[in-house]
Specification:
Structural class of chain A: alpha/beta
Oligomer: heterodimer
Distance between the termini of chain A: 22 Å
Radius of gyration of chain A: 17 Å
Largest interface: A-B, 41 and 36 residues
Strand order of the largest sheet of chain A: 1-2-3-4-5-6-7-8
Shape of chain A: globular
Helix content of chain B: 40-55%
Strand content of chain B: 15-25%
Radius of gyration of chain B: 19 Å
Distance between the termini of chain B: 47 Å
């Protein structure tokens, strides 16, 4: 518990936001998945979002859909995803956030899912289609298990909803940086500054920014505002397009560049410092 | 029952959607409630249903088939509604709602193409931009409807993910909406999806059951003893059942799902008959899923029933014993398709043929009883597919 918060605080003390690469569990293939996470840890990842593949990922664009399809076809399931999480935490010491959708959690049982996530060493859980309105049983189970559950705030979220999200005491807030599903964008989001500021007004929970963050410049802009920055599709695409061995090399290089961009310029005083 | 404020029917329903969409769902709920309380909106809707859609649709006594089956068979002729199916009832209502909300763009999913055609039609009528998501497999088996949508000015987008059928088209429409929600209304085609969609679609489809209760009220015509409708997502069935459930009338309600190649084959669309509770497309309902909660692919000869979920209010009706849910196979539906054409001069949609097929199978048990089949659509769209199967 509180592993994520400690990690964000340590990064802030070092003058940077945490960089959190996303990768679907079982990519590039189940045998080399652990190596891929090790390469990203060596390149400077501060935490990981590990996607547990789901057949109908409504919040994901074509790249992560394809990654989920490949992972499922390669036999990845919830148990094997949690085994990978345990391996990643054990080998890298980097905190892991497990990400999935509501139905696999319900099917396993909400309490059991959260307990299994915690037992695997996950520090946090993200459920992409879980709004605050339906989140109470999930939040309770996550607290009981000692993992931090995310609630979301989007550019469309109203002040009333944001206040409700704050009152629900999420483990952390996933700020959706742009309208639309996950995927690379050819322009940065223009609204993240206001969004993160509004979230800070309703909660002291850590804030991560994700969805649509594509370039090193996007990461640099997000790192000035949020405690953590997530890049998914831009990394996953490199993995889908390369051989497993080449993919791991590319992941390392890309993560190093993104992680460097998370260092905040010293003249910019930051929230909480 | 009506839904609770959080959109629950018993334990079912709810609003499991990405946060980006949640404010739009609230906005939609408020706009719908205000519109339905506004006499001007109701007046415009009623006028369009009468003059544009052609309502009320008739009830027709199928005399020759009644004699053949040994029962008293009536058909609620939704196949005679403009565009050839009940789908237009919902799309005209929701397109009016989109215009009222100031959203110039509409998206929709379609399986058989009937909802896509009905959406494109309503958008042409009201001058709204229209994009329809359709599985690539369905585009193949419903080529005529694709061209109809294009004639009506809609853009048809082929969905190539998953099984390339209705489920995937719904997912893709929802993904579009996550990015376009500020300018776009999603006209969902059935009583599925996150709250308030199941309530909105039911309220726009209940005109079927409201009419039927007036048309067969025991005065000019006798009241039905059994009312039968096919169930994919379940909008035509909800439309005809809900007024009877609400009134607490003593009538047997039967929903007929697609048994595909047989329930035991695992290749079917019987979410209520062979599925289990889970969250699909934003609502807790019965669905086809594996032990891990991964969504299974449905199968049906009929694209409109080829869906691994069902509206959450049907899930509630099933558990509460308010409606009986049965299933018939592709082969039984195909036989009923031919039977109605040959004996009554009506070519039904393959979806609607499922409802009739159950009556045919159960005819001995239904002997002498007054049965209404909701003939939800006409079969022109299916003729090419059936011709290929018969060849």
């Amino acid at each position: 518990m509180r592993e994520l918060r400690r990690r964000f605080e340590r990064c802030a003390a070092e003058g940077r936001a945490a960089f959190l690469p996303y990768l679907t569990a079982g990519l590039p293939d189940p045998d080399s998945a652990l190596t891929a996470f090790e390469a990203m840890a060596e390149a400077g990842a501060d935490g990981f979002e590990v996607g547990i593949p789901y057949s109908d990922p409504l919040m994901d664009g074509p790249v992560i859909q394809e990654a989920a399809r490949r992972a499922l076809a390669a036999g990845m399931d919830v148990d094997r995803s949690f085994e990978l999480v345990a391996g990643v935490v054990d080998r890298t010491g980097v905190p892991v956030i497990a990400m999935t959708y509501v139905n696999p959690v319900l099917r396993r049982g909400v309490a059991r899912f959260m307990a299994d996530a915690a037992a695997a060493g996950a520090s946090g859980v993200i459920v992409a289609d879980l709004p605050v309105d339906e989140a109470d049983p999930f939040l309770d189970a996550a607290r009981d298990a000692g993992v931090d559950l995310a609630l979301f705030a989007a550019p469309t979220t109203t002040p009333e909803r944001l206040a409700r999200i704050g009152r629900a005491r999420p483990g952390f807030v996933y700020a959706i940086a742009d309208l639309g599903v996950t995927g690379e964008r050819d322009r940065g989001s223009r609204r993240i500054g206001d969004l993160v500021a509004e979230i800070r007004r309703v909660t002291d929970a850590p804030v991560v920014l994700g969805v649509g963050i594509t370039t090193v410049d996007d990461v640099r802009a997000a790192a000035r505002l949020a405690d953590g920055v997530i890049v998914g599709s831009a990394l996953v695409r490199r993995v889908l397009e390369a051989s497993p061995r080449a993919a791991i090399g590319e992941l390392g290089a890309a993560v190093a560049a993104y992680a460097a961009a998370c260092r905040r310029a010293p003249e910019k005083p930051l929230h909480g410092e | 029952m009506t839904a609770t404020s959080t959109g629950r029917f018993g334990p079912y329903g709810g609003r499991f959607a990405p946060e980006t969409l949640m404010p739009a769902l609230t906005e939609l709920e408020e706009a719908f409630t205000a519109a339905m309380a506004d006499p001007a909106f109701r007046g415009e809707l009623d006028g369009l249903l009468r003059d544009f859609v052609g309502r009320p649709t008739p009830v027709f006594r199928a005399a020759r088939l009644s004699e053949r089956l040994g029962l008293d068979l009536w058909l609620k002729r939704e196949d005679l509604a403009h565009t050839g199916a009940h789908k237009i009832n919902n799309t005209v209502g929701q397109a009016l709602l989109a215009r009222r909300m100031g959203k110039p763009r509409v998206i929709a999913e379609t399986g058989a193409g009937q909802h896509g055609v009905a959406t494109a039609t309503a958008c042409a009528l009201l001058g709204l931009d229209c994009v329809v998501y359709m599985g690539a497999k369905d585009i193949e088996r419903q080529a005529l409807n694709v061209y109809r949508m294009e004639l009506l000015g809609a853009e048809v987008v082929a969905v190539t993910t998953g099984a390339k059928t209705l489920k995937d088209a719904v997912s893709e429409a929802l993904r579009d909406w996550v990015g376009s929600v500020e300018t776009t209304h999603y006209i969902i085609g059935s009583v599925v999806g996150p709250h308030p969609f199941p309530v909105i679609v039911r309220e726009f489809q209940r005109v079927i059951g409201d009419e039927l209760r007036r048309q067969m009220d025991g005065r000019d015509r006798p009241a039905p003893e059994v009312v039968v409708a096919c169930v994919g997502g379940g909008s035509n069935a909800m439309g005809v059942f809900h007024p009877y459930v609400e009134a607490g009338e003593d009538v047997e309600l039967v929903g007929v799902e697609a048994a595909g190649l047989g329930i035991e084959s695992g290749r079917h669309g019987a979410s209520l008959g062979a599925g289990s509770p889970g969250v699909l497309h934003g609502a807790l309902t019965y669905m086809l899923q594996d032990d891990e909660g991964q969504v299974l692919e449905a199968h049906s000869i009929s694209a409109g029933l080829d869906y691994p979920g069902v509206g959450p209010e049907h899930a509630y009706y099933k558990d509460a014993g308010l409606v009986r849910y049965e299933a018939v196979t592709d082969a039984e539906a195909l036989d009923a398709f031919h039977l109605l054409a040959e004996v009554e001069g009506i070519i039904p949609a393959l979806e609607s043929a499922h409802a009739l097929a159950w009556v045919v199978r159960e005819a001995p048990r239904l002997a002498g009883r007054r049965v209404v089949v909701n003939l939800s659509g006409r079969g022109d769209k299916d003729v090419e597919q059936v011709a290929a199967l018969d060849a």
